[in-house]
Amino acid sequence: TVAHAAMSRSRIEAAPIEEGVVAALNHDGEGVVRGTKTVFVPGVLPGETIRFQRQRRHRQHDEAVLVEVVTPSADRVEPKCAHFGVCGGCKWQNLSYEKQLGYKEKEVRENLRKIGHVVPEEFHPILGSGKEYRYRNKLEFSFTDNKWLTQEQLDSGIDFPERRGAGFHIPGFWDKVLDIDECLLQPEPSNALRNFVRDWAIERDMPFFNARSQEGWLRTLMIRVASTGEVLVVIQFKEEHAEAREELLKELAGKFPEITTLQYVINTKQNDTIYDQDIITYSGPGFIEEAMPKYSGEGELRFKIGPKSFYQTNPEQAYELYKVAMDMAEIKKDELVFDLYTGTGTIALFMAEQAREVVGIELIPEAIEDAKLNAQNNGVTNATFYAGDMKEVFNAEFIAKHGKPDVLVTDPPRDGMHGDVIALLLELEIPRIVYVSCNSATQARDLGLLTEKYEVKQSRAVDMFPQTHHIENVVQLVLKA
Questions:
Q1: Residue 56: in which H helix or E strand, if any?
Q2: Out of 99, 170, 215, 260, which residue is the most buried by the measure of CB atoms under 10 Å away?
Q3: Is 90 an annotated catalytic residue?
Q4: Mean residue pLDDT across the chain
C-alpha cells in the first residue's frame, strides 16, 4: 500500500473513506475516478484501485486526497523525493519517465484532434529532457514561522516546538509552507544555501515571516544557478534589521564563495513579488550569465540574467526546444522573421544567425530592455525589439513599416493568442508560421482557426519539466497553395 499525507484536516475529517478505480489522468496530471460524480485525486495512476476521501466539492467534480493505493499500477515507481505527495511540486515522480513522456505525447495529440480538429501531416516523437532531475535554473523558497506538519508527524505523537522553516507552499494554501530538507529540482549549492540561511536564523532566534499576520523578518529566498556555474541569490526581508542582515549576508558570502551575485530586498508590502521593488546588491555584478550554443554550432550566445529577468527554467532543454523551432522555421538568409511574445529575445537572437532580420514584440517593457541588451552584448545587429500589447502593436501599420515577414514565430502565454492577432495572421498570409506553446489546449484552439488558410505540417512535443504534467509543443504551419 502507498500511504498519503492528508492535505486539509478540517474539511475531510467527516468525509467517509471510499474505494474506486482510476480511469485516466486529467489535464493537471491528477487521477480521475468516475462514479455518480467525478473525483480528482492527485498522486495516483490509471488502472489503480485506490481508497480516497473527498476534500472539496465543486459543481462538476470533487477533489479528494489519497488514503492508500490498494492495487498499484505496473507503471508506478518509488518517488525519489522524501517530500513527494505533500509538496505540490513534482506530482509525477511516482510514474516512470518513459510513461510520463507517453502521457504527455498522448495529451498533445488528443488536444490537437479533439479541440482543434487538427491532425498534422507529421507527428515527430516527443523529445525527452536529458536531465530528469536537477534541471531547473531558478527556485524560490518561502520562510514561515508555522511550518506545515505532515499527517505522519501529527500521528507520531511527537511535539514539534520549532515551527520555523523554509520551503514551498502547500497546494491550495497561500499561508502554509512545507519545510524542505532536499529538493531534487535544482543543482547544488541550492539545498545547502537554503538550509544554511534557515538554520543560521533559527540559531539566532530571528523571526520568520507569517503570511497571515504579515509579521516577521525572513521572507523569501530566490536562487538562480546558471549552466555556466554562476549563482545568483536574493534574500527578501519584511523589514530592515541592518546588523543581523549584514551578519547573515557576510557569513553567506564567506561560506559559499560560488555565489556570483548576492542581493537583498526590503519588502514591506502585502505580497512577495519583487518586480516593483528596489533590489540592493551586496556583492557581485548584480547578474549572472547563461550560455546557449548557437544553432550553427559555432560559438555561443550569452544572456545576462538579473533577479527580475525571465529565462527558460530548463536551459539545456530550452536549447533543444529552440532547435526544433528553428528546424521548422526553415529560415533562409534573405528572409525577414517576426517573433511574437519574444520575452527577453532568446528565440529571436537564436534565429538571427540564419535570417536577414528578426523583429521581436513583447508586452513587458523590462523584458524588451533585456532583449536589446542581450542583442548588443552578443553583437547581433539584425534584431530589433518593440514593447507593447500584441494586439495593439502587431497591426497593419507595423507591417507597413517593417514589411511582411517570410516566417513568423509565436510563443504566447498559456491562454494562447488574442483573436485580433489570429485575424491579422489570416489576413497577412505569411508563408510559414511556427507556433510554440506551453498549453496544447489553447494551441489547438488557435490552430483550428488558422487552418482556414494554413496546413498543419509538423508537430513535436518537447518536455521541459520532467516529473510534472507540463509539456511544450511546437507546430509548423504552411500557407495553403
A1: strand 49-57
A2: 260
A3: no
A4: 93
